[in-house]
Structures are given as structure tokens and as C-alpha cells.
Amino acid sequence: MSPSESYYNQQQLWGADPEAYQRQVRWDLLDLMPPDVRSVLDVGCGDGFITNALPPALRVVGLDISPEALRHVTRQTQVGSITDLPFEDGAFDLVMTNDVLEHLAEEAYPRALSELQRVAGRYVLVTTPHREQLQAQWARCADCGAVYHLNRHQRAFDLDRMRALLAPGMQPVEVRYSGDVVLPPPDPTMGIRHGFGAYATWDKGVCPDCGSHGQIARDPDAPHLRLLNAAYFLHCVRTVHLRGVWNDRTEIIGLFAKTPAPLPAPKPGPPEDSASLLRIDFANPLQTVGRGFVRGSPWARFQTPAGTELASDGLRRAADAPDSLVIPLRIPIEPQAQDVFRLSASATGDGAGLTVYGVNGVTHVRHVLCDTDVSGQGRIIDKIIPDRLVPDAYGGIFEVHLRGPVVLHWLDYAPSGGPAPHGPLLRIEPGGNVIHGPGGATTVSWSLASDRAGAYPKCDLDAGAPESAETSATELIDELILWLQSSRIDRPLLLARADRLQRELLEAQSALDRRSGLKGIARRICGWLRKRRWPNSRANKPKQE
């Protein structure tokens, strides 16, 4: 058994509960299945999450190189490889392969595309990751030092590459954006992060060179990485977000046909409205984030911690909630002095109140923006941001601390430099929601299968990928240092942390000194720390938690 086959034959890789992106992909594959299909070959079927869900009336075969994975498949199975399919030409009406092509070595890739077309009688259906930034999932082996992709991906796919995937033998019929809604824009600071020794980690990752499970890990909250997080978000605000709503879908699906037939006219998609992307509707379940905020998101989001519940009028305290509740928010903006936020809240009983904090994304210092009681009749709180705040990788950081039976209804954020960015919001209904792009030889679509009604931003279905060239490290660091110097941050608190900052940055500098082109970055940061004249007085200290 080859090293690749041994890796995919690990028991712990298979049989786990499906992730959100897998459930969405399964819904889309079933929705895209042409009505004249009677037989399906699922190449690289894994544990059969999709294979087992295909209609019972179809003749289905699941093929994989892993006997361990095939133990979970309830349809007919076959051990085999995508580069040498053990079937005759045209043996199946449709051949599908999902999240396989990105794993193949260069020499195997063209052979696999040829085999898919050979065995397919009419159609090929392909799923791959969408616009993956491969470097973001690089890990460094703790034993041999090799750098590898945690999921062993070899290539990335976008709309243009998917359209041309099987040309000229097969024509694309439809390309659909699918998967989860957590794809971040490309990070131009990724090379700098790797220079600092900050690589990705995964407990199931295995080094392809030595077989070790050990990976080099760095504290993701280290000060120099917080600086780069802020720089990344500045890049998103100033480049990616100016092009419109970022397409955050993690997967892309292509349906190809040997002899395309005219498709029926697409059904109308969900209706849409226009709204500020900086507005939070606390009654909208699709504006919440479950597993954490999304890096570089263009839309304001909020978390619903334990002890809260969504109601038709907003976010409220649950009956078993703790005394103090913190609602984290991210606003996709560079918070500036004189920006204004408006917060609507009411109360369902006595003793209700709230405190709003702005948080510095590099220093983690909290600034009290307002502290007020809330009555049963409700009120709208207008507050001006007194000073510039450094964002983190997810946006401007705000927290709402609730006391007593408070209900949050909505929040509007108004930038001082101009109008808030607006975009179309789709009115999503429970079930499948599909929108289609402009007509043409290939249909481009986007879908969201939801169990809840709510609003979600509509992206440009045919937009090109944003530039992802390395950002100038000098420019980023200089700007952020000036920003910190001009902010009225809690300097005594920074002084208390200065020793740790210098120690970690000097360690990072040592790592960068061994990498050409990056060695000056940590020197600049350390130089700033050494030259700071830290005040001993706490005069004019801003309020903090």
C-alpha cells in the first residue's frame, strides 16, 4: 500500500458527522442531477455521505482507494483509483467526483480527467474547493521540518478553471457556488506569517515525508500576529470590499455534458432588498456566527453565546442565562473617531442595562463607549466613537454586555468618512434557495439550503478573484505603528506587557533573520518598542473593563 493509500485508510478519517459544507454540497448535487440519469459512479466516494443519499432507483457504485472508507458505504462498492477506473467506456450515465481532484499529484491529474470522461456516458459532475488559498493550510512538520498542506491539496479552482476543466471533450452546463459560507479573502500577509513560524495545525494531519503527526505550533494571539491580523483586514477593506460583496462559498461544482441539451428556464430566486452591510438585525438568524467570525467578512455579524435566544423582535436573555452576558460583534470597518453607532434595545423587566465596549485588536484594551439603563419602553442609543480603534482579522471589535432582561433589536453603524456600504440582501426561506447569474452558454448559480428564514448578502456571481500579491511588509507595519501611537490606548497596560512583546518579537526576528526578504520586519517592530517612552502616570486613562 502506497503512503497516500495508507493515509486515506486511517479509521479516524471516516464516519464522522458531516460538516456544514458537506450537507450543502450534497443538497446541490442532488439538485443538479439531470432527470435522464439512471446510473451513477461516485469516484472517491469516501465514507458514502453523498453516495448513500442518491435516489434508490439509480444504479450506484461507490469507488475509493480506501477499504476502510468503503466500510461505511451502503451501495455497491469497488476499490480502485481515479487514474485507472475498472469499467468500460460509457459504463455510467453520470460520473461524479467530489473533493478529489485537488488532492492528485501533477502526473495523475490529466489521467484522472481523461478517465472520468471515458467512463461517463452523458455527464460528469465535479466538486472542488473554491478559491482556496493553499498557503493558508500549510503545516510544518515538528520532526523533519517539511512544509505540507494539511489536507494534501495540490491545486486551487475558481470559476474560470471549472468552466474549462473538461474542454474540449465535454461542455460545462452549470457551475454552482456551494459549501459553507466561511471562505475568507486571500491573505497577502501569509508569507510573512510563515516567516514568523506561524503555520496551520490539525490533529489529523500527517507529514507526507516522514509520517509524523507532530506540527510546529505558535501562539495565534502573539502580538506580532495581531499586527498582521489588523493589516490583513485593512487589505480587505481597501481592496476586496470595494469590489462588492465577497463570494464566501467554500466549494464550487461543475456539471458537464458530452452533448448538452437545452436546459429549462431557471426558477425565480429569492426576492432581495438593499440594506447597509454595517447594520445588524438581532432577529436575523443568518447574521449570527456559530463556530466563530469569518476573516475578512464584508457583512456585520454577531455571536449568540449560551444564555441567549433569538426571537422575532431580536436577541434576548434566556431563562437560565448567567448574570452577565457578552455579545461579541464584528463590524467590517476601520473604526474612526467621529463614527456613530445607533443601538436599539428594550427591556422585559426591571434592572435592565447594557454597556458597549470598543476593543483594540492589537492590545486587547477595552474602551467604554456607553453604559446605560434600559427601560421597558425601549430606547435608541446614539454614541460617537471617540478614537480610532485597531481591528482584528474579522473587523472592528465591539462587545455589548447585558445586565438583566435586555432585548437587542438592531444596530446601525455610520462611518464619519461617508455613507455606509450597501448591498443586496436575499430573503432566504427554509429549504433550498437558488439564484442564477446572467444567461449564457454556461449557467452560473449560487444556492443556500437553510433550515431558517432570514436575510443574507448577495454576491456578484461572475466576479473575478481579487489581487492576492504580497503586501509590502514595511508599509503595513509602519501604518499600524503610527496608528497605535496616535490612539489614546491604555499605555500603562501596554507597559506592563512590553517585556512579553519584546521577548516574542525578538524570537520572531531570529526566525526571520534566516529567511531572505523578511528579516527587517521584526526589527522594525522591536525598534518601535524600544523607543517608546512609556508614561508612568495613569492620568487620562480611558475606561476599561
Task: List its traits.
545 residues, alpha+beta, Rossmann fold, Jelly Rolls, 3 domains, nine-stranded mixed β-sheet, six-stranded antiparallel β-sheet, 26 strands, disordered C terminus
Give a structural overview.
This protein has 545 residues and is of the alpha+beta class. It folds into three domains: 3-183 and 247-257, Rossmann fold (3-Layer(aba) Sandwich), CATH 3.40.50; 278-420, Galactose-binding domain-like (Jelly Rolls, Sandwich); 473-531. 21% of the residues lie in helices and 28% in strands. The protein is built from ten helices and 26 strands. The protein has helices at 3-8, 20-32, 67-70, 109-119, 159-163, 190-195, 223-240, 473-486, 491-512, 519-531; strands at 39-43, 59-64, 76-79, 92-98, 120-129, 138-140, 147-149, 171-178, 251-257, 272-276, 280-281, 288-289, 301-303, 308-311, 314-317, 324-331, 340-347, 353-359, 366-373, 379-384, 396-403, 406-414, 422-428, 431-436, 443-450, 454-457. The strands form five sheets. The chain has a nine-stranded mixed sheet. α8 runs parallel beside α10 (519-531) and α9 (491-512) runs antiparallel to α10. The protein is globular and about 75 Å long. The model is unreliable at 489-496, 512-519 and 528-545 (pLDDT under 50).
